[in-house]
UniProtKB/TrEMBL annotation:
<feature type="region of interest" description="Disordered">
    <location>
        <begin position="390"/>
        <end position="414"/>
    </location>
</feature>
<feature type="signal peptide">
    <location>
        <begin position="1"/>
        <end position="24"/>
    </location>
</feature>
<dbReference type="InterPro" id="IPR012944">
    <property type="entry name" value="SusD_RagB_dom"/>
</dbReference>
<dbReference type="Pfam" id="PF14322">
    <property type="entry name" value="SusD-like_3"/>
</dbReference>
<keyword id="KW-0472">Membrane</keyword>
<dbReference type="GO" id="GO:0009279">
    <property type="term" value="C:cell outer membrane"/>
</dbReference>
<dbReference type="InterPro" id="IPR033985">
    <property type="entry name" value="SusD-like_N"/>
</dbReference>
<keyword id="KW-0732">Signal</keyword>
<feature type="domain" description="SusD-like N-terminal">
    <location>
        <begin position="62"/>
        <end position="209"/>
    </location>
</feature>
<feature type="compositionally biased region" description="Polar residues">
    <location>
        <begin position="390"/>
        <end position="407"/>
    </location>
</feature>
<keyword id="KW-0998">Cell outer membrane</keyword>
<dbReference type="Pfam" id="PF07980">
    <property type="entry name" value="SusD_RagB"/>
</dbReference>
<feature type="domain" description="RagB/SusD">
    <location>
        <begin position="336"/>
        <end position="591"/>
    </location>
</feature>
<comment type="similarity">
    <text>Belongs to the SusD family.</text>
</comment>
<protein>
    <submittedName>
        <fullName>Glycan metabolism protein RagB</fullName>
    </submittedName>
</protein>
<dbReference type="InterPro" id="IPR011990">
    <property type="entry name" value="TPR-like_helical_dom_sf"/>
</dbReference>
Length: 591
């Protein structure tokens, strides 16, 4: 086979390469190694794909919800506080994925072209072939993932055309042409789909050990592979690596984006495509009945989290980051001040009002039992799971949190710099058994999902309703209505009245659209979805973030922060540095 002359060098090499700073490469970089040296050093070769995993954006929380109508930051220097206040720019973009994702794709491209040459074992051509297939499958799946993040962050309209990003499906070197125009959004999506299909062809649905030789896939059994061979490469030791199930989920996420109003111009992806892609995963998960009963509080199910091991997921998690060790950083950032936290993310009154009455009716509906004088009574149970309102408890000792202005503690609204600005604190994602008291600090294990099954169910509900209406299945075993009913039942909505509100709108596509979007807002709050959802739906981005001020036993709804977004900001910018360096790269309109 053709020998490659690419050089594997330190990460700085590729960072410089992708920033276009070729002049920085003179004189020649030291400590570089020929690509051919990786052929007999599998760990060296696998470092390429490990770099791809390390660059996955959802390896940690972004909390970009603080730039939406769902939350604000109590730190005026926070990047999303500044974005929401009008300081989002092509040279000041905390949501930038251009450099990170393109660098990852470069490493993955080298891995794809190198894998077949690497000796992963000692003189076992069959195992080398199987390892190469797996690693190439992972690389294709990861490449689809990074394309999704590039399109989400940088796809947009330029010169009247919906554009995606530059498509690089082979490694770049110093002789490559970088001054290339962006591909159309459609062409970028087709590259993503092709990569997902390659991953599905090469990877098992899940990495699990098999019990006999007859279970070895035919393509490997025909070459003489045994059960032990298969398990060595595709068995449970590989759990949490990108699998066929994960590749299918990435495809569904991308298809939902592509079918949405902001991205549908000249785009062949349909709502039906997105629904069917999601249905494939739901079917793998036993249909609607597979919705995890404990999925609502996945972040706080201590027995499930503490007993995880060996790459196993809880029933709610499709793919997750590594658990790591016990920590208290998340709680330190977001616990209320009396629990020794910095109260960073403050949920808004806008979001609180989106939680319906316990009987399922929106608060504005005549059949709602909402009481202005007792606003947190008889509400959707998710409200108390996800948000700390005045009088609720928090922390390892279940201490009452008083957010009133005259409550006498630093938990009160605007009392000190780390106090809430809205009258609310975030509860979701946090483990209340973390103790931040300086004399007895203790951390706990946290689970960080990259993809939750509930997200997949919500993808199906949204796409199926748009494709076929609320109650038509489109050939699948369930409808949008069936999925939403199951999600609301799990949440404890309408248990005493058969969810009369849902039943009243089950044949109204427009009303069901509003409900599905609201269910997505609630179920996925604080997980980094709202910022992108508002944009792909082409909705108003400027709704003022509101809060509640409680004082003298009375309350007043207050405006907390205006949202300053122009219409063109439904799309993110191409980094200014790239547009200045490369004349062929068009900037999205308005930036």
């Amino acid at each position: 086979m053709k020998k490659y002359t690419h050089k594997i060098v330190v990460l700085a090499f590729f960072s410089a390469l992708f920033s276009g700073c070729v002049d920085l490469l003179e004189p020649a970089i030291q400590n570089n190694r020929d690509l051919e040296s990786s052929y007999n050093e599998p760990r060296f070769a696998q470092g390429l794909i490990i770099n791809g995993y390390a660059r996955i954006p959802r390896n940690g929380w972004s909390f970009n919800d603080m730039a939406t109508d769902d939350a604000v930051s109590n730190n005026e220097n926070n990047a999303f506080f500044l974005v929401a206040g009008g300081q989002w720019a092509s040279d000041n973009n905390p949501l930038n994925q251009w450099n990170n994702s393109n660098a990852a794709i470069q490493y993955l491209n080298i891995m794809i072209e190198t894998a077949d040459k690497v000796s992963f074992t000692v003189s076992n051509d069959l195992l080398d072939r199987m390892f190469a297939d797996r690693i190439k499958g992972e690389a294709y799946g990861l490449r689809a993932l990074f394309m999704f993040h590039l399109l989400q962050s940088h796809g947009g309209v330029a010169d009247g055309q919906l554009l995606g990003v530059q498509v690089f499906n082979s490694p770049q070197d110093l002789t490559s042409e970088f001054n290339l125009p962006r591909s159309t959004f459609e062409a970028s999506m087709q590259q993503l789909y092709a990569d997902a299909e390659q991953a599905l062809e090469l990877l098992p649905t899940d990495y699990e050990d098999i019990s006999n030789d007859a279970m070895v896939p035919e393509k490997y059994r025909a070459l003489g592979a045994s059960r032990n061979d298969y398990n060595r490469v595709f068995g449970e030791d590989a759990r949490q690596l990108l699998s066929g199930r994960i590749a299918a989920a990435i495809r569904a996420q991308a298809a939902l984006m592509a079918a949405s109003p902001a991205f549908s111009q000249g785009n062949s992806t349909t709502w039906e495509d997105a629904a069917n892609f999601a249905a494939e995963i739901i079917d793998m998960n036993n249909g609607v009945s597979g919705l995890a009963p404990t999925g609502l509080t996945w972040y706080a199910n201590t027995s499930e989290i503490n007993n995880l091991g060996g790459g196993v997921n809880t029933s709610e998690i499709l793919w997750r980051a590594s658990l790591g060790g016990p920590s208290s950083n998340l709680e330190a950032a977001h616990f209320p001040p009396t629990q020794f936290g910095n109260g960073l993310l403050n949920p808004t009154q806008n979001l609180v009002d989106a939680f319906p009455d316990a009987n399922g009716y929106p608060l504005s509906h005549p059949s709602s039992n909402y009481d202005l004088n007792n606003p947190y009574a008889n509400r959707d149970p998710r409200l108390n799971h996800f948000i700390i309102s005045n009088g609720r408890t928090a922390g390892p000792n279940n201490q009452t949190i008083n957010t009133s202005a005259d409550g006498g503690t630093n938990d009160g609204i605007n009392r000190v710099e780390v106090s809430t600005r809205t009258g609310y604190y975030m509860r979701k994602l946090l483990r209340q058994d973390v103790n931040l008291n300086p004399v007895s600090v203790n951390g706990q294990l946290h689970i960080m999902p990259r993809i939750r099954y509930t997200e997949i169910y919500l993808i199906y509900a949204e796409a199926a309703n748009e494709a076929w209406g609320p109650t038509t299945t489109g050939g699948n075993g369930y409808s949008a209505y069936d999925v939403i009913k199951a999600i609301r039942q799990r949440a404890g909505i309408g248990l005493n009245n058969g969810d009369a509100y849902l039943e009243s709108i089950k044949n109204d596509q427009n009303a069901m659209r509003t409900l599905i979007r609201n269910e997505r807002r609630l179920e996925l709050c604080f997980e980094g979805f709202r910022f992108w959802d508002l944009r792909r739906w082409d909705l108003d981005l400027t709704e003022t973030a509101r809060g509640i001020r409680i004082q003298n036993n009375g309350s007043q709804i207050i405006n907390v922060q205006n949202r300053v977004f122009d219409n063109h900001m439904k799309y993110g910018p191409i980094p200014l540095s790239e547009v200045l360096k490369y004349s062929a790269i068009s900037q999205n309109t308005g930036w």
